[in-house]
UniProtKB/TrEMBL annotation:
This is EF-hand domain-containing protein. Keywords: Calcium, Membrane, Transmembrane, Transmembrane helix. InterPro entries: CCR4/nocturin_mRNA_transcr (IPR050410), EF-hand-dom_pair (IPR011992), EF_Hand_1_Ca_BS (IPR018247), EF_hand_dom (IPR002048), Endo/exonu/phosph_ase_sf (IPR036691), Endo/exonuclease/phosphatase (IPR005135). The keyword Ribosomal protein does not apply. Coiled coil: none annotated. The chain crosses the membrane at residues 76-96. It comes from Gossypium raimondii.
């Protein structure tokens, strides 16, 4: 009988990438795995085809196949259709791709294969391979100096990925082939970049298969992984991966906000495995605190206070953790999806606490409105694009305001925004807050009533009684029990943003380190992928997530800074 075979041809066209140091399975040369062409069962073409004689016939000796037997029409057609034609097509596609460099999608030619898990997946990516130098960890090949890298990425949980805009209930989580293929590609990119620190948001902790795939793949590559689910069984959460070659995890904490959005945060206290060289005779093993979080999406402007409160809790916990563990000053890196842009209250709050946006520092962008929309990192479910993903850095001894003062200014900023939203100017806002007070001042009861009217109190996610009381104490500067117009004006005209790092200077690591100095980090570079988002454009052919991937590279520097708070 003739042997039956089902040819399977996998052609994967992707962007132009440099060769990787491992061979393609079917070719004796180095290719990126995604450019390999796998043609199975070709060996059948080299076998003789024999037909057994009928049982009642006389068996004759096997004859050598004639030339005509190789060129009979059925055999020639099958060989050309199933083997040579796909092979020629694949060669043409690769040649065309190498010339044009255009993005493309995976094409799966399944032949007669009946596998239920095969699906076409659009997985376009950016043209260039990101951060080749970060794959060497501490040693930056382009700069010849020690460095670390950090990647933050909201990978869009399949339970939230909509597949049909007309039917919002259709989610990617219902189609295993779709979410599995997309997340495998995410894992491959993370392993290729090989950042020292990886912070993921919207990690689908509710799916054991996906969790196992990430933990097994990252674990095999040398990472320690830590996951944390959101409260109330939301299904998604956080995953932080620390490469054991570069950092040792000294301690970790889990933060549960227990608020309206069921949000959480991870805190990891790590120490560098390889000491950073200070000079020829001295080196230090640098300690760092890393935080990974995903703030609430502002479905309503009144929820801005919730997001601000989440950040306030993180910073409070940072202070408490360092104080209770009697830790010296050390760099703090905050990663995540902050669900707010550079013009928002959270951004300004963090800046007042001495944090800088690594991407904006690397590209020399300021905090001005002119630079607020130079880049984007997210297209939300409403179709709006904005920059919401940040890697924040705060170095030791960076000048910063007292946390309570920064919190009060941020909260008053939200109050001012809510009042301006209903077209209240300064004088009108004062009159609104004063309400029916007999004198030209604001009483505490009128203040509380005004906050309730703008939805900042009286709701489950609003300001608490104690927080409202603390704000009143900040507003009543002279402590006489009322807020007059001058005190109100001080709040209304409060200068939010100040350059908190002006008193700090960066020094070469070639000199000694003094007692009042510390080791911090300088931002060497930061890149968003796909590249179009760096120009404020969201590419339509990008489907890996609804967020861009942000990676930053830091190098250690000696800091000489003032320790005084503002």
């Amino acid at each position: 009988m003739r042997k039956h075979w089902n040819p399977i041809v996998l052609i994967h066209r992707t962007n132009t990438r440099p060769p990787l140091p491992f061979p393609c399975p079917d070719f004796n040369q180095s290719f990126h795995p995604s450019t390999c062409i796998l043609i199975k069962n070709l060996d059948h073409m080299n076998q003789d085809i024999t037909v057994p004689p009928p049982s009642n016939s006389v068996h004759k000796p096997k004859l050598r196949p004639t030339l005509n037997s190789y060129f009979n029409k059925p055999t020639l057609f099958k060989a050309f259709f199933f083997c040579f034609l796909p092979f020629l097509i694949s060669l043409f596609l690769i040649a065309y791709h190498n010339q044009s460099g255009k993005n493309s999608e995976m094409v799966l030619l399944a032949g007669f294969c009946n596998g239920s898990d095969i699906a076409n997946v659009d997985s376009s990516e950016s043209k260039s391979v990101p951060f080749q130098e970060t794959r060497t960890g501490h040693a930056c090949s382009t700069m010849g100096e020690p460095c670390i890298s950090c990647t933050t990425f909201n990978i869009l949980a399949p339970i939230y990925k909509r597949l049909d805009q007309q039917n919002q209930s259709v989610r990617e989580s219902d189609f295993r082939a779709f979410w599995l293929a997309r997340n495998k590609k995410i894992v491959n990119w993370l392993l290729y970049e090989r950042s020292s620190i990886i912070c993921l948001q919207e990690f689908w902790v509710g799916n054991e298969e996906l969790v196992h795939m990430y933990e097994e793949s990252l674990g095999a590559a040398g990472y320690d992984t830590f996951k944390l689910a959101r409260t109330n069984n939301r299904g998604d959460g956080l995953l932080t991966a620390i490469h054991k070659e570069y950092f040792k995890v000294l301690n970790r904490r889990e933060l549960f906000f227990n608020d309206f959005g069921d949000r959480v945060a991870q805190l990891l206290h790590v120490q560098s495995v390889a000491p950073f060289s200070i000079n020829q005779n001295e080196s230090v093993q640098q300690e760092i605190i890393i935080v990974n979080t995903h703030l609430l999406f502002p479905h309503d402007s009144s929820l801005s206070i919730v997001r601000l409160h989440q950040v306030y809790q993180i910073l409070q916990y940072l202070e408490t953790y360092q104080r209770e563990n009697k830790l010296s000053q050390m760099p703090v890196i905050l990663c995540g999806d902050w669900n707010g842009s550079k013009r928002g209250h959270v951004y300004k709050f963090l800046r007042s606490q001495g944090f800088v946006s690594s991407y904006d520092i690397a590209h020399e962008y300021t905090d001005s409105d002119a630079d607020a929309h130079k880049w984007v990192s997210h297209r939300n479910h409403r179709g709006n694009i904005c920059g919401v993903d940040f890697i924040w850095l705060r170095n030791p001894h960076n000048s910063q305001k007292l946390l309570k003062i920064s919190w009060a200014e941020a909260a008053f900023g939200i109050i001012k925004y809510q009042l301006k939203k209903v077209s209240l100017a300064e004088n009108d806002a004062f009159a609104f807050l004063r309400a029916d007070s007999s004198g030209n001042h604001i009483t505490y009861s009128a203040f509380c009533d005004a906050l309730r009217q703008v939805n900042l109190t009286g709701l489950s996610h609003g300001l608490s009684f104690q927080e409202t009381k603390d704000l009143w104490v900040q507003a009543d500067a002279d402590g006489n029990g009322v807020v007059d117009y001058e005190e109100f004006k001080r709040i209304w005209d409060a200068t939010w943003l100040q350059h908190m790092d002006e008193d700090c200077s960066l020094e070469d690591l070639n000199e000694g380190i003094a007692e009042d100095e510390a080791i911090g980090f300088a931002v060497k570079k930061a890149v968003l992928f796909p590249h179009e988002v760096e120009k404020g454009i969201w590419p339509e052919n990008y489907s890996l997530s609804d967020h861009a991937r942000l990676t930053a590279v830091f190098s250690p520097v000696r800091l000489r800074c003032s320790k005084q708070s503002l």
